[in-house]
Amino acid sequence: MDRVTELLDGWRQLAAWRHDWTASPGPRKWNALVDRLTRIAEEAVADPADVARITEIADTDPDEEVRRNARQWIHPWVPRPPEREHLDRWLRHPLIDLGDVPAEHGIMLVPGTESLTWVGTGDILVQLETPEYAAATEAWDTLPRGGALQFRRDGTVRHVTDPRPGPESWDPVDVWTFPEDCAPANRRLLETVHSQWGLIEDFGPAHPLPMIRGTGPRRMLHLPGQAPVEYLLTPAVH
Question: How does pLDDT run across 113-140, given as a tens digit for each residue?
């Protein structure tokens, strides 16, 4: 049995277990299958012919779980900050092959929980609700606690205690961001996020998402189709 056929059979087995948890063999056998498929896939991604076949599975297989398993290998997961050494390995992955690309900590806004509301009309571009508890990562340690930050069209940020409700929900995710002129890295980042988070099923092929670039209090808000806006984020924002 060739590598891709073995991968497909294994992914179908994992999908069957996910669709019917009563048929699951338990964590030991499940993990053993995942480990075996991982070893096979690591060899397959170095072979262009295997990559082409895995790509076809990712695009056309009728089972969503199988498609996601295949996409995890043709769109390798970008490690999240602050794991710079893992980022270097990702940049040198045979399907990435970008070498040393400068990167900085940023935040991508992904459809998800109710922690962020995409407004986009009137004077408010984005409303980001901020938790009462302390931030878990460096990216959020300059944000005020509670209420919400309203990113306004005039380039200011207002901290409000009574957030405005909005029509859609978003989830802020810590990511590495790349220079604007590094199109391959940015494209791979978007492909990874859409693949790994299952956004392709709900929102179609990878496309630009709202992003906050930079660290510390000074950030750049990037919205698809609009010029970047610079903001100063501090606990004293009002």
Answer: 555 666 666 788 877 777 676 555 555 5
The DSSP element (H or E) to which 69 belongs, if any, is helix 64-74
**pLDDT tens, position by position, 49-67:** 999 999 999 999 999 999 9
Residue 118 CB: number of other CB atoms within 10 A?
Answer: 17
Question: 194: closest CA among 51, 68, 19?
Answer: 68
**Prediction pTM value:** 0.74
Residue-wise pLDDT for 185-195, tens only, equals 999 999 888 88
DSSP codes of every residue in 134-182: PPSSGGGTTSPSSSEEEEETTS-EEEESSPPP-SEEEEEEEEEE--TT-
- Helix (H) / strand (E) element for 19: namely helix 3-19
Q: What tokens does 55 get?
A: 């790509």
Rounded to whole angstroms, what are the CA distances from 115 to 133, 189, 216? Answer: 13, 22, 21
